[in-house]
Specification:
Number of helices: 13
Largest sheet: 5 strands, parallel
Mean pLDDT: 91
Low-confidence stretches: 55-67
Shape: globular
Radius of gyration: 23 Å
Length: about 475
Amino acid sequence: MLDPIRTVAIIGAGPSGLATAKYLLEERVFTNIVIYEQRQNVGGIWNFTPLPPDPPSPTKNAPCTLSTAQAIDLVTDHLPRFNTPMYEKLETNLPHMLMQFSDTPFPERTQLFPSREIVLHYLEKYAEPIKHLIRLDHTVHGVRPKNGKENRGWEVTSRDLNSDRTVAESFDAVIAANGHCDWPLLPAIEGLDAWSTSHPESLHHSVSYKNAGRFVDKRVLLVGGGPSGADISHQIAAKCKQPLLRSQTTKSPYHTDAPNIRDLPGLVALAPEEHSARFTDGNIEPNIDEVVLCTGYAYSFPFLSALDPDIHAKGIGALPLYQNIFHARFPTLAFIETPEMIVPFPLAESQAAVVARVFARRLPLPGRQDMEEWVAITSSQRGGDDDGGGGRAFHALQPPRDLEYMKRLYAWTREAEDGACEMGEDSSPRGKMPREWDTQACWLRMNAAKMRKAFAAKGARRCEIFSYEELGFSFTER
């Protein structure tokens, strides 16, 4: 059992940080909860950041080993401060009744797959009851264990961006809820650095994509098969010289064929001198004007460098996270929403429910050796890296893995002891429960990608679609 925890720092006021704070509050044992947010608003990744008219200097304080150095500097050169990968016409990949928090539905007659503006407004409303906990315009520069020891509390160093004042504060526990979609992950492609040097204006990553305007009448190669790549490819295909070339090693569940898109296998090499690209089948495509990389994002925890010098280079691979949440060596350091290919808001709630009960000492954790053993075994089962933290594969929970994971967390949450509330004499039940994944909810999750494709096929009429029944889907209890 952990030592008593009374003070908790949460890094990030995006969806996962907001949900975590609410679950902590419901335990009624924590005397101080602080949410640090570097932006001027809550919502995290759902804040839209337009590109500045004059490019700033390249950002250098970022993970670099997962990408080629010259290309990573180039594609981040024009990014605004605290950039997010939101683009102008983004709509969610999940229907709102699936992605919503368990206790907060979207407003009635919300478009089935909401726009980014609707989601941001939803999060702003969700945050209202806990605004007093949030410190906007505060960046966290350092999180270090006090006296360098395990389970002895944390020193959190933050800077107020308005006053430029730096403050170090002590907390019993820290929760990293800063997301992992703000720094680009570039693939190891032959010629990528050379292309970035020869044609710097023509290499892009989805992290900086805002609209398709710059691709009008250009021959475009888009690389990547995830949900963003699928959506962005159709937006660019409507503007660029036809057909758009789309390279994918595997096809996303959100993939749709289109007459103005030609699908190609994995990209092997770029040849900047010839403006050409070579693919795994040996095919060479000439006259490439623009290259758009929709190849995902790197985990970034620069504030943890004092904990592990490898964190800058290895990212998530440097973190042995028991149940994808608790640092095995420092269990009072927890992470919310590191898994990928998930239903983000409900998964954050499922993890937050466990964290709140563990920190309130109503759920025990195994010892360090048992937690590290779980990480090693699970990493091997999932095809992770042998680096102590399991790498990206360890955190890939594509459906139905995400459903199985949330069901396990729900069951774990129910094991919590009732315990006595140590703040006042309130005898009402403690704790907040996340969504229970019943048959209908699981069916909705497993059909979300099909619904999204049917929704997109409605074209301009999709804004009039408010339920999946209108797309021809119907749940039948088996």
